[in-house]
Amino acid sequence: MLSLPDFKEKQILCVNNLFDAPPSIKFSNDNIVFSKDDKVLNRASCHKVLAVFIAGDITITSRLIKEGLSHGISFFLMKHNFETYAEIPAKAEGNYLLRMKQYSFDENADLLISKKIVKNKISNQALLLKSRNLINDLSDFKGIFTQIENVKNNQELLGVEGNMSRRFYGMYFNELGWYKRMPRAKPDMINVLMDIGYTFLFHFVDGLLRLHGFDTYKGHYHKLFFQRKSLACDIMEPFRCLIDKQILKSHNLKQINEKDFKVINKKSVLEFKHNKKYSELFIGAIMENKEEIFSFVRDFYRYVNDSKNKFPEFKIKLN
Description:
Blueprint: H1 4-7, E1 11-16, E2 24-28, E3 31-36, E4 39-45, E5 49-55, E6 59-60, H2 62-70, E7 74-78, E8 84-88, H3 96-104, H4 107-131, H5 142-150, H6 154-172, H7 189-211, H8 230-236, H9 240-252, E9 261-264, E10 267-270, H10 275-288, H11 290-305
Parallel strand pairs: 1-5, 2-6, 5-7
Antiparallel strand pairs: 2-3, 3-4, 7-8, 9-10
Helix pairs in contact: 4-6, 7-8, 7-9, 7-10, 9-10
């Protein structure tokens, strides 16, 4: 299993095809080599890569996949709009004891875990609002935490979390002309940016869970649903604030330009030539907090194996 000291050296690669003809990536001397017309443009050591995101058409060798997986590297193939259409994940297979533990949780245990996840998410939302002087004090949220403790089932918890998220988005993104969260519908630039950032975060979390041997389809807050990685959806919740913070920060730093987006069939779309800029913003935000995300997943692994261990908690850094 990957240790924290080893993980500290890991990075994410995002390869965008900005050429008329497809470039290629291949394995050579323990490196991932990116080339065009047999000319090497960049390279990265396999020992320092955790995942490779590939947007657009590109030539990839079977040896790279083979060697990459042996180094614990996951590959994600994406359309130009960062929608993932295929993945080749590195994973720890055969950890049947962990998976037996996952499927042994009853409804009460699932609800307890769900409450902890939602409280952690809302705590970070409150910290972001406080950092922008949009609330006076974190004590404003004591009532919400009491509500969470008193819910009797998952549906009630979904209602509390949904109401808080609407309140948070409306306050935090007010200066950006916030309308409402509409994933996949993409009615505006902010929703497009959220979809991109949350996609990178989701795959990063899912990859870490798989490396620990989890069945990422078996969640607690997000229930079993066909082809949905419910556990990855669960564990990414406390970290969504990283993407939210980056969007507002990048807007204030003039790194986001509305001219980079266009409307097609009533949907806001990021022009492909600007993919690199926005992927770097969100991958950077994730990598700045990679150790905290890794530690959360590791401690969650310990909790699932023995609930006497402390449930993990993430607190966003506001500097």
